């Protein structure tokens, strides 16, 4: 039944491929996706900022209710990123120290909560990746309904089960399953370019001519 169902994930990005993204800033991958995709500024790292990458196990739940998250913790695979769309509601926490501890123990790659967490002081000191929209001490309900392994969206960013989800101190990003390998190569190439730029800036040889060329192209008046 739509709104209350648990489905099987049909495919998932390879863990070996996913883990290669741990060495690449989310911002670089975002640039390679034309800066058109983002999980929104509200979803922030609640942990110590350790990078995250893994295939998504998606959950759509009623705001303030975490029944399906409890189920997901039982069926997820090591390396998975558990992504919960709780509607962005911050009234009740969807997870806290106990459930995060279980996810860490089982070898999951991280958790993304489009909603609130609690026990934020404990989570903040840990390296296990937890991203969320806010914090509240009020606990969740556990009545459902909800769905597991269905397409979800966070601030317009669509996440399908098995897509690659990455995160660092700048936020989270979904890389579509079919494009993960291509974007890995593109992001690596961008890293090389940025490293060269940093070296040129440090040595005073960086060419800023592109700035004046762009101003000329857009017809900007520059008083002399």
From TrEMBL:
This is Putative 4-hydroxy-4-methyl-2-oxoglutarate aldolase. InterPro entries: RraA/RraA-like, RraA/RraA-like_sf. NCBIfam families: PRK06201.1. Gene3D superfamilies: Ribonuclease E inhibitor RraA/RraA-like (3.50.30.40). Its cofactor is a divalent metal cation.
């Amino acid at each position: 039944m739509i709104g209350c169902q648990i489905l099987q994930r049909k495919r998932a990005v390879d863990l070996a491929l996913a883990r290669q993204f741990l060495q690449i800033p989310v911002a670089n991958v975002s640039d390679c996706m034309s800066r058109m995709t983002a999980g929104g500024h509200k979803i922030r790292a609640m942990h110590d900022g350790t990078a995250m990458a893994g295939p998504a196990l998606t959950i759509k739940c009623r705001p303030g209710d975490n029944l399906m998250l409890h189920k997901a913790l039982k069926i997820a695979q090591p390396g998975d990123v558990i992504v919960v769309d709780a509607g962005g509601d911050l009234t009740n926490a969807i997870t806290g120290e106990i459930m995060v501890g279980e996810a860490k123990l089982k070898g999951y790659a991280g958790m993304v909560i489009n909603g609130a967490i609690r026990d934020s002081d404990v989570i903040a000191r840990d390296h296990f990746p937890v991203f969320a929209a806010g914090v509240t001490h009020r606990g969740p309900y556990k009545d459902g309904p909800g769905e597991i392994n269905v397409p979800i969206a966070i601030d317009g960013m669509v996440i399908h089960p098995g897509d690659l989800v990455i995160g660092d101190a700048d936020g989270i990003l979904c890389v579509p399953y079919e494009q993960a390998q291509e974007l890995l190569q593109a992001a690596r190439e961008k890293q090389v370019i940025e490293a060269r730029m940093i070296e040129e800036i440090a040595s005073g040889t960086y060419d800023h001519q592109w700035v004046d060329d762009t101003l000329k192209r857009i017809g900007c008046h520059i008083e002399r």
